[in-house]
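Posted in: Structural Biology > Protein-Ligand Complexes

Title: Requesting predicted complex, EPZ in pocket

I'd be grateful if someone could produce the 3D structure tokens for the following input. Sequence and ligand are given below.
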Amino acid sequence: MGKYRINGLRRLEGTLQVQGSKNAALPILAAALLVPESTVHNCPELSDVEAAVHILEELGCRCHREGGSVTVTAGECLNSSIPEALMREMRSSVVFLGAMIARCGRARISLPGGCELGPRPIDMHLSGLQKLGVTVLDDRGYLDCRAANGLHGARIALPFPSVGATENIMIAASVAKGMTEIHNAAREPEISNLADFLNAAGARVQIALDGTVYVEGVPKLHACEYAVIPDRIAAATYLCAAAATGSRLQLAGINPIHLTACIPLYEEAGCTLRMEKNSLELYAPASLKALRMVRTMPYPGFPTDAQAPFMAMCCLAKGTSVFVENIFENRYKHAGELSRMGAQIKLEGRVAVVEGAARLHGARVECTDLRGGAALVIAALAAEGETVIDEIRHLERGYEALERNLCALGADIKKLENGEDFC
Ligand code: EPZ
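-- Reply #1 --
Done. Output follows.
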């Protein structure tokens, strides 16, 4: 597996064009199953996006990438099951379920196992789809889903604003007969991006001010093209790297509104931020201040995906920072690896207490998951000496051209292929 070798204590400087959002691109590619031909612009080059394209091809679609645009020609429904290997490769492939059922009247997927973040149940996805007329049969670890009489609208109230469940239901409802209401729906920007893509294809999706999603089903969707929004989590990650290394960084091509919950925390840490309509500049202080309390919440609250990058930043801050992870059961695996670099982190259930260290030192560490890996990169950029980060396949799932981007900003980072020697 590839590794990164990073020599720390170098300031970053410059402007970075932020990638398209992984978490917007994946549901949009799933919805492309229902569109005769669609072109998805600003689609990031990531292994998770590649996995989604493989699933589309497995389901009978033709896909073609030209630069940042992916064109999907849906073609006929040749297959309605996702091979287990592909399901395991990307846990979020469950988001294809609604589109597959809407397109072929049935779908067979293996139950997505857990992942690095703990168990990843899909009960809300399934109960929502059942309300739309889907029957679900648990067939020895496979889910056999059918809509024998087609899909019909329904009033659905989610017990938790699940992002994936909202997306699955919205996609299936777009071509169901009648009106669907999704109450307590997720309100992440990626949900609106999906709604906009569906509407560009002729769907009738409306999101009310209270977040309720109204979908008036249409018989079928038509060809369209649409752009993926900027990746707010990648943006937050680079800003944490700039803050941790005492740098000045400008991010271009972002929507600062999507970072509303993060911005006050950068300011509490002592950073100065300047925002324009589509850009944001961060000036880091000579030394960071601790963050009293960081609670992860559904959007518009502080995003769980930014918890690990912010924790890495707080490892360098003066004082004690407290994190509460309210979304996932087991999202502190990066703490152990950060401790190998001298970080002082105590874990108690959903709470993590970070004692800011004067200095981190380089070490050999291993990515535990996508955002945990990002935390290790941030820590390595700010650490004294050399760090080697293993299992960087996790990072390649969600960060486009990470090594090239950081090098361009002045970081000393090199990808070591298998067997390349490193001291
Ligand atoms: C999406 O995951 C994102 N992934 C995650 O980003 C993100 O952390 C998460 O939303 C929360 O914002 C993609 O968009 C591809 P959820 P998703 O359904 O849809 C529980 C990253 O790093 N739950 O909102 O899986 C679930 O176990 C990834 O880019 C149920 O109990 O998140 C979790 O505890 C990681 N039953 C909580 O809800 C269900 O049926 C939130 O899950 C569904 C979810």
